[in-house]
Write a sequence for this structure.
């Protein structure tokens, strides 16, 4: 008969039972969570608000609930009910909670009620990484993503759709009333059309609901309104539409830490460049910071605001002239600007002179340049320049167009092209990690304020995982001890030396064909130590 290994007798009592600490390895990330939260001054953030009254059961410490959430988000467990179950069956959670078992409602309320605290915690972690020279702010990559809200499109009220439905219902009511009149006129005849009054009542109730929806939109001064989450908006992607928030991040170029984040309710990035860039500059403390973003952020007004704040930005210009060229029309670039004479020169070498009046559009002032009416009508290239009904060519020039001219020249340089490649590698990495490795699928909170808190928590989790991957659990615990004592200089030097060895080892892995460079990214610091010491 074959021999197999036998386990312990579950009912046998041990003379010296193992402690719970023995089940948790020395390099287990849960130890890093515990030491980090213990090093944070939650009282200074206004989180320790429980009064020392003797009535009733004592409350759970906010540090405990923060540890639970950090562990949960690091391990793709975000539901408060699932977290409550893990506390009772997961050895790591038992160790982390020290045997305490808060209920799911207590866990959920912490995340719901402390949005501002979660944002402060994210900012404090950025300050920590900056204090040990892991963030320099020399270059940050800005990007946004539509992250799904906890809302249904079925609960969305759209002004355009509601008005269309209202017209359809009114038309059907008219048809039913006409059919009823016809029935009354021919009620004595054998052939009487069947018209049910219940159908008419349903249509009237439907009309009442639509009227209420239109009134709601009027009160909110909005074109769309979601009943389940009023702050969520319908945002459009090439493949589909979804109820979402526009999450903005700024990623530092040194070690890919997220230094700034926020959520917006607009489905466009056109007005997010300055806000995100200034948040990143404040977080990094670098007065000469450069920022890069994709074409969706191109907005002349936002670029000027960044330059006024002494932030150099790199944003590609969208190609708005392609449609003109495809139709055989002159693009805007075919008209050259003469700075000395303050006029445009058309392809037929005729001037477009500046008018005394200006145009106000989208908060900016445009100068107007117009051609000579008789010359434009007799121009041999008129069909390539103007519609038949237009008398003379007219161009609009922003009053600060010189800024955009310089920006266009800058974006054509090889330096700018290399920066755009670097931006793509930096900005896309966090969103991919959050969705694939951290198991993010959608926001659980509702309302912009609460969603912003949950967003800060998930970005804090990403930075936490990033730091663990860089320096390992053991060095991380040393860092938290130094943070408590206020002596960061010694640990800063040790981290710098460790990272120097780390990247030397990475270069060796890339050199050897037996290793894939991408695999190095997922090694923890402890694993790298083992490989180095082997």
């Amino acid at each position: 008969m074959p021999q197999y290994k036998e386990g312990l007798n579950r009912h046998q009592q041990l003379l010296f039972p193992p402690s719970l600490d023995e089940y948790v390895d020395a390099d287990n990330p849960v130890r890093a969570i515990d030491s980090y939260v213990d090093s944070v001054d939650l009282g200074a953030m206004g989180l320790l608000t429980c009064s020392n009254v003797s009535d009733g059961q004592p409350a759970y410490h906010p540090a405990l609930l923060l540890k639970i959430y950090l562990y949960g988000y690091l391990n793709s467990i975000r539901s408060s009910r699932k977290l409550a179950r893990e506390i009772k069956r997961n050895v790591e959670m038992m160790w982390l909670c020290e045997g305490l078992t808060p209920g799911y409602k207590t866990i959920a309320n912490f995340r719901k009620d402390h949005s501002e605290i979660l944002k402060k915690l994210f900012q404090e972690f950025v300050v920590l990484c900056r204090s040990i020279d892991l963030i320099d702010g020399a270059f940050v990559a800005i990007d946004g993503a539509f992250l799904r809200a906890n809302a249904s499109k079925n609960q969305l009220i759209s002004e355009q759709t509601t008005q269309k439905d209202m017209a359809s219902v009114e038309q059907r009511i008219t048809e039913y009333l006409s059919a009823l009149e016809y029935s009354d006129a021919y009620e004595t005849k054998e052939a009487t059309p069947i018209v049910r009054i219940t159908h008419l009542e349903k249509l009237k109730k439907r009309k009442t609901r639509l009227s209420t929806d239109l009134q709601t939109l009027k009160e909110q001064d909005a074109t769309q309104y979601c009943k389940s989450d009023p702050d969520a908006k319908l945002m459009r992607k090439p493949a589909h539409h979804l109820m979402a928030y526009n999450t903005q991040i700024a990623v530092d170029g040194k070690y890919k830490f997220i230094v700034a984040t926020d959520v917006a309710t607009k489905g466009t990035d056109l007005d997010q460049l300055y806000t995100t860039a200034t948040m990143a500059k404040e977080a990094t403390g670098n007065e000469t910071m450069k920022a890069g973003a994709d074409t969706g952020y191109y907005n002349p007004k936002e670029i000027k605001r960044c330059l006024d704040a002494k932030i150099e930005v790199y944003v590609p210009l969208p190609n708005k002239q392609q449609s003109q060229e495809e139709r055989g029309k002159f693009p805007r670039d075919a008209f050259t600007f003469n700075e000395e004479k303050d006029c445009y020169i058309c392809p037929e070498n005729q001037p477009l002179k500046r008018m005394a009046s200006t145009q106000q559009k989208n908060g900016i002032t445009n100068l107007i340049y117009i051609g000579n009416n008789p010359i434009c009508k007799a121009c041999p290239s008129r069909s390539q320049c103007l519609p038949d009904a237009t008398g003379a060519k007219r161009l609009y020039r922003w009053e600060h167009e010189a800024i955009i001219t310089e920006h266009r020249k800058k974006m054509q340089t090889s330096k700018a092209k290399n920066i755009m490649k670097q931006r793509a590698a930096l900005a896309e990495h966090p969103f991919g990690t959050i969705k694939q490795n951290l198991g993010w699928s959608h926001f659980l909170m509702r309302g912009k304020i609460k969603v912003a808190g949950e967003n800060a928590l998930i970005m804090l989790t990403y930075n936490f995982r990033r730091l663990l991957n860089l320096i390992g659990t053991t060095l991380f615990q040393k860092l938290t001890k130094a943070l408590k004592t206020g002596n960061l200089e010694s640990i800063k030097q040790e981290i710098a030396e460790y990272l120097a060895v780390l990247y030397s080892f990475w270069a060796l892995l890339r050199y050897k064909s037996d290793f894939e460079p991408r695999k190095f990214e997922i090694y923890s610091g402890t694993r790298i130590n083992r490989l180095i010491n082997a």
Q: What stands out?
A: DSSP finds 18 helices and 13 strands in the chain. Confidence is low (pLDDT under 50) at residues 517-525.
